Amino acid sequence: MTSKRNRGATRRTGLFRPQALLRWVLQHVRRHPRLYVPAGAPVLFLFVAHVLSLPVLALTGGGGSEGIGLACRTLLTWAVFGFLPFLALSYLAFFLAARPLDGLLARRQPAVPRTAVTLLPAAGYGAAIACGMFLLLQPGNWPGDLALLLCCLAAGALNWSLYRWLTGPGPVSAG
């Protein structure tokens, strides 16, 4: 017979503690946001493209129309082959366009409102991603190019907003 005297006071320790791991990851991302922020929108768009491709594949497997098949092929092509160029261009645009533009605005125009200091680098970021994507792709029809431009601008705005959220307000003290 064993004694049950001190069983309630013992702490259970396990090898895998997801709360501690999640806390560590969040602290690391908050300490080094420049390393992870440019990957935010491409990873999100990759996830959304794969989630959207599942119902499209189900519809085309059941004898869907040709338009759905074309949409499925386009979506899967972008989800698989477009991710790495989008990720690389996002990093390049972050370090070569958005951050220098933010520093330039902070130095040259100290009286610029805080909203403009957030929106102008975000627009420059998205435009730089779009320029890189247009250089990599062949010119196509204008609705597809417009959709690509809007997608890149949304990625720039999303990544820059995430960067500002993680790092706090910009370097401009006026606003």
Cα distance, first to last residue? Answer: 73 Å
Q: Profile the largest sheet.
A: none
> How do the SSEs run, as a string of H and E?
HHHHHHH
Uncertain parts: none
User: Which percent range describes the beta-strand content?
Assistant: under 5%
Kindly state the percentage of residues in helix: over 70%
How many helix segments? 7
Task: Please tell me what the overall shape is.
Answer: flat
Radius of gyration: 23 Å
Count of distinct structural domains: 1
Q: What's the total count of β strands?
A: 0
Mean pLDDT: 78
| Structural classification | mainly alpha
Which oligomerization state do the chains in this entry correspond to? single chain
Structure in words:
The structure is a single chain. The protein has 175 residues and is an all-alpha fold. The chain has one domain (34-167). The chain is built from 7 helices and no strands. The longest helix has 26 residues, at 83-108. It is flat. The termini are far apart.
